[in-house]
Structures
1.
Amino acid sequence: MKRLFLLLSIANVVVLVWLLASPAGERRPPLPPLPAGARLLVLAPDGPSTPATPPQPEEETAVPVGEPLAVSSPRSAVGESPPVVSPPLMEEGAARGGGESGEGGEQVAEAAAPPLCLEVGPLARAEGERLLSDLAGRGVEFRTREVEIEEPRYWVFVPPASDLKAAFALSERLREAGLRDLQVIPGGPKRNAISLGLYRNAAIARERRERIRALGFDVSLEETSQKVSRLLLETPVPAGVAGAAEVWVEGLGLPEGPEWRVAPCTPPP
């Protein structure tokens, strides 16, 4: 171990002597010469940095609007003339307002208006079939559509008796007075009442009530409703008379009484 340490120490001393004995200029090999046109890069010394001058933008050559733009290609390096590319054409509306269409900037297409039809009714079946036959003789074709509606009704009745036996006894007295159109109600909210008729016309119902009251009976009248089936007659309105439908309907010669209206046609079932 001592011998190894001694050999290392001697080697270090020899290297140190060789370094001290060598000339200063031979310790670092000379740098190779710079190529022609190359610039030497010099590092800036430590310290406050000097603000660099911002690069100046290169001059741009304005190209008139509509003039073709010259675009270089790999072939222009060998002496060929560069190809000329024309700028894309824009529509007048897009060039002015970025694609605006119309004064509002956006034009909405109007949806096609649905066809219009003349509806007559609702009518009772017998009345509707009679009117349908009359209009067909005038050259106007209607199609029928059945609807269910609620119509007002006026009920004339004797208020409920104390029990069913008393109700039948009272109905016999009414028959003896000459009344035939009556019926005892056996159940429901008006149990043991006596029905004297259900009328569509309020005036006729009031007249019947007063006539039976004159015979000495207690009679009431109540307004109610009833679901009934009715007919609607429908025919297309010609396109040229949609704005003057009333004049056109008058020319059809519809009878007074039935209701009518012009509305979008109902698709056939």
Note: The first strand starts at residue 69 and ends at 70.
2.
Amino acid sequence: MPVQTTPDWVSNPLNIVDKIFANDSTGYQQDATMLRAAVEAAFLGRIKSDTSDYRHLVPLINGLSKEQLQAIPTNSLVRFRCMVRDERPSSYHQGFLQVRQLNSGDIKAVCAMFRDGVVLEMGEQVVAFGERGALSEMRSLKCVSLPVESAWSRAIHEHGKSTSDKPLDPSQPVLVANFFAEAGASVAVNDAVELFGLLSFDDPMLPSPERGAGDSPAISAFPVQHDEMRLNVLLYEDLLHTHPALPLDKTRILSMSREDGFSFVRVRESLMELLKFCLNGDALGAEYLLLHLISSIYARADDQAIGNFPLNLTGMPQDVTFVKRLLGTLENILTQLAVFPMSIATLNSALMAPKMTEVPGTIDNELLPGLLQLPKHTHLALDELGMDTGTLNDTGCRNLLALQKLVSDQKLDFNFLFGQTIPFLMDIPVLVLSQGKSLVNCRCIVPLSPNGAAVDCAALDEEIIWQIRQYLVTVRFLDYEIPPEMREAIVNKFVTSRKADRSISPDDLHQQLELARYMTISHGEVVLTQQRWDEVLHLESERSRRLKETGIR
């Protein structure tokens, strides 16, 4: 087998940047965004095409220790799959230099973008900072590896393997991603992105292995902090999802679902059997859990998160094995799952929402991450089976309020200085596991009724598991519509039912419509039919019956 060599665009990406700049140095100095766009296009064309993806040629730095990161060759291209944790105040960089060769007197323009600094050749001297001598704004974001990524997903991304027991290294340092020439304007805190850029640690003004103390001088493009890991970003992509084998494009994702061997109906049946096995044969609980797993926020109106479908499975047996099997199964089919064991002690001590704090000895502030600071489409399971008696302190009360606001409104308040809070919009499906009434109010409560009549799915075929993983991501991208005749029939039925029973509320109709959406797309369909609507009404009727029997409201 031939040894795979590293492409020159990976080992020497700045060569490409400099060649692009040389093609129109005067024009690019007048408009740095044109240079940034040209560089993005050049590397995007190398990373992927309409039919192929070559990002695997770029070394992935997730999971590497600080020592391993420092061993990466300077100015080589790397990629980082991450979540934006915080944003630094705006800073400025010098994008272009005018350099004179002292012997000949010739002056040339040099690009200083996408790098910490420029190393001058012997006999060169900077005579001006660009044609206009102006500094350009640089956006810097603090990024961390994607939190709570499932072991199977992380292993494939990092090593190409399907399984891994290696936990994510919590000591991996925070990376500061620098965006140039108005790049990254749409990237926000909590966003999940894949960055392609040049990794650096050292101060460009200090000697390095590539440039000894007696070599040519270096000109810093912007101030850097000592021992800080930086990534000067050439290109980035929003992570629509974190599945390791699906493209980051809706059209291509849906196209893969039409390939031979994949059937929404068949995979749904396999997933139902798996979930029934986890719930000891409870088909109703499995149905609601399946619909919850494919839920997401698809719109916001009147301050409401449309698509939010938190689920409380109550009547959970006090059995560690039962809960461990359920959560283990979910981690094996979801790409990201966070589990929070709720107790008086954990609520009273945990930091749920991010909190701004002052850095001692400086005038800077930093955002301390909270447990709920998660990228969209991360699933959160609240395990209340360990809840004991006791009193919540101030921290515990604040944490419970943060959980309730996330469950109800899909918002998380970031705590800034001087008591100021800013709500951030979230998209985190929340599953609550409890024995009785939960501390967190969920609109949809399903009392479990295990009957033990489930097929043992502990050793499902790996191909089926892989298709379930694909299914759970793909269905989120299906279009959906309600035909006019169905819409009219639903409204008329609601009006008639409410006249007969005033306890029926618009919230009930809203939940039925949400369930109808998820029931439809869960079968791979995009148009609501009478059959799917009747199935939803049957589910809600059975759930209502169980709630009356258990006395839970």
Note: Residues 530-550 form the longest helix (21 residues).
3.
Amino acid sequence: MKRAMVGSGGVSDGYEVGSKRQRMMESNPYFAVGSSGPGGYQPYGYGSGLQPSGFPVVRLRGLPFNCTDIDIIKFFAGLDVVDVLLVNKSGRFTGEAFVVFASPMQADLALNRDRQNMGRRYVEVFRCKKQDYYNAVASEVNYEGIYDKVQPTSPPGQSWKSIDKEQLEYTEILRMRGLPFSVTKEQIVKFFGDFNVTKDKIHIACRADGKTTGEAYVEFASAGEA
């Protein structure tokens, strides 16, 4: 179990996932699970009546299969792109990507690029759920083998208590690894019984097929509590 850094397109748990992604996750509050950003961010809206999500990430679909992160940055010329996560399945690009911007307002402006062309293909740009983004990051890290795969079998309250304190990073977001695949939010709430943790502050990472990965993210009121 390691402390997660939240912010730039990914999760840093002491391993090198991407320096830009790592730096942003140390400081960007919009990546906090259950957060809508400082001050309840309320930018100007669009004629569609959609409410801004407060999460500075959009999802792209229909990208050319030879697309690179540079192509995506050019596609969003004029906007402040912080990070690009190309979605792969079994090592092959799926034509989807997640794009991290410097602020929710930038992400809202990016929605105006929906159905614009990249080469001969038009690209869909739409809002991104935090859960989908975290799942994509977890899948990327697992596939690349950046950390050891864990086959958790112990019940809650036993395997979770093995913590390497030297490797913890102090933020309000706690990343849990090695959880039983059958773990529930209720069990995690009970595990942190001494803290005011609620189910809406817990994110259990899942693969595309709906199966859990053995990881979860828990948001605390402060870094001190975490």
Note: Confidence is low (pLDDT under 50) at residues 1-23, 33-52, 145-170.
